[in-house]
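Dear Dr. H.,

I hope your travels went smoothly. While you were away I took the liberty of generating a structure for the chain from your last submission, since the lab meeting agenda had it listed for discussion. I wanted you to have the full record in hand beforehand rather than looking at slides cold. The sequence, exactly as received, is reproduced here:
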Amino acid sequence: MASRRIPARAANGTSRRRVITILGATAGGLTLGGGALLLGGSRELEAVEWSGVALGSPARIVLYSDDPVGARSLLAQVADDIHALEDEFSLYRSGSAISRLNSTGQIDKPGREFLHLLDESVRMSELTSGAFDPTVQPIWDVTAESFRSTGLPPSLDALDRLRPLVNWQGVDASADTIRFARPGMAVTLNGIAQGFITDRVADRLREGGLQHVLAELGETRAIGRHPDGRRWRIGIPDPDGEMLIETVQLGDEAIATSGGYGTRFDAEGKWHHIFDPATTRSAHRHRSVSVIAPTATEADALATAFAVMPERAAVEVAASLPNVRVRVVDNAGVARPLGT
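The corresponding predicted structure, in token form, is as follows:
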């Protein structure tokens, strides 16, 4: 799972995460924050944009509305929703639900959103035979501390001793209590929470009557199409550079990308934030994995899992799910569909 509790910059000074690039947001002669687009000769849509931070990643929402004042009011409510969800899922906040669980090994009367996302994490763990595992946080803690204190990776013996702590089945969750089976266990939801928050934001905007929305909050979710009728165009960045390696199109769906380039502990990238729960080491099957799925929650978790899983097993899981597409950048630098 992609655990990302790290200072603003990783060991080599690179940014914690590179976001997928939104392309063509101003097509049709539109300028973000102003300008208008006429539909059907009478309906005028104005572009409205919000930007901020969600779980430590740059966040951006682009939408088109014939009521820009109402849209901005709704975006202000969305920003409040994001902050409230961070109080549940953020490892940066000492008072968050997840931080309290990790520090004490138990929390009583968990919030509805926290319990729901933990249940969804368990579902994804079962689906991927444990490749997605929210209990990899101890691997992150030991690895990050070793690089911070010595500039070197932890010993393999130290990582091997963490194996009993990394087991998603060791989390007992109910509406009354969440507790760990063993002392020293800890969880991270960073491999799924950004997708979950993205979905919550997109759903709230849709419920507010908006039909043309692109929300990018670490992961990307589209509502409808661009007002000019085309699908939204999303650029996937080259893991080793600043250029785009591929462009995909989204309708009412989401995309998430995972890759070890997001947070490197060492300059070579041998040690990075995507850990294989089975080995307690960083995974190196692909340079990046991008998943297109009906929801950002699903896309986020699957991108994390497929970065760890053997390719054949990942293909089987993807084939079992409706409307899921997977693109990888392999270790030769080739962008291709998973399994080809």
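Two observations you may find useful: The mean pLDDT is 88. The first strand starts at residue 21 and ends at 23.

With kind regards,
E. W.
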